[in-house]
Automatic annotation (TrEMBL):
Residues 38-148 form the SHSP domain. It holds the Pfam family HSP20. CDD domains: ACD_LpsHSP_like. It comes from the Bacteria. InterPro entries: A-crystallin/Hsp20_dom (IPR002068), HSP20-like_chaperone (IPR008978), Small_HSP (IPR031107). This is Hsp20/alpha crystallin family protein. Belongs to the small heat shock protein (HSP20) family. Gene3D superfamilies: 2.60.40.790. It comes from Irregularibacter muris.
Length: 148
C-alpha cells in the first residue's frame, strides 16, 4: 500500500509527490470558488463554430462574464474573442478586514477564410456568446492538375 500514488480525479492525472504536488493542491484550493477559474488558468474557453451556407455561427461559453468584459475583433478573417475580468472583494467585520483583488484575462482567435467585415452580429445571453458572421461568396479557384 505504501507504493500507491494518489490520483487527482478532477484533472485525470497521477499526482507527483513533492513541491509540484503541493503547488497543484494550493492552486486547486484557491480556484475552487471562482466561477470559471479552471478555464482562466488554462487561458481558454469552449468555442463551437458552425459553417452554414451564407454565414458562420460561433458560440463561446463565458459563464459569469458581463458583456462589458468582452472584446470582439474581426480583422482580415481572424476573429478574436478577449475577456478581461477584475474582481474586488472588500469586507469588514468586527475583528477582521478582508480585501481581495483578482484580475484575469483570456483570449481565443480563429481564422475564418471567407468572413465578411460588414453585418456581424453578437449577443451574450446566459453565459453563451453567439456571433453570426456573413460569408463572402468566392468563386472556386481549384484547378485539377493532370499527372503525366
Amino acid at each position: 500500500m505504501a507504493g500507491l500514488i494518489p490520483f487527482n480525479r478532477r484533472h485525470g492525472r497521477l499526482m507527483n509527490r513533492g513541491f509540484e504536488d503541493f503547488y497543484n493542491r494550493v492552486d486547486d484550493l484557491l480556484n475552487e470558488g471562482f466561477a470559471y477559474g479552471e478555464n482562466l488558468i488554462r487561458g481558454n474557453f469552449k468555442m463551437d463554430i458552425q459553417k452554414k451556407d451564407h454565414e458562420y455561427l460561433i458560440e463561446a461559453e463565458l459563464p459569469g462574464v458581463k458583456k462589458e468584459e468582452v472584446n470582439l475583433e474581426l480583422e482580415d478573417g481572424r476573429l478574436t474573442i478577449s475577456v478581461k475580468r477584475e474582481e474586488n472583494i472588500n469586507e469588514e467585520g468586527k475583528n477582521y478586514i478582508h480585501k481581495e483583488t483578482r484580475s484575469s484575462s483570456m483570449s481565443r482567435s480563429v481564422y475564418l477564410q471567407d468572413a465578411q467585415q460588414e453585418g456581424v452580429k453578437a449577443k451574450l445571453d446566459n453565459g453563451i456568446l453567439s456571433i453570426t458572421i456573413p460569408r463572402e461568396e468566392k468563386p472556386n479557384c481549384t484547378k485539377r492538375i493532370d499527372i503525366q
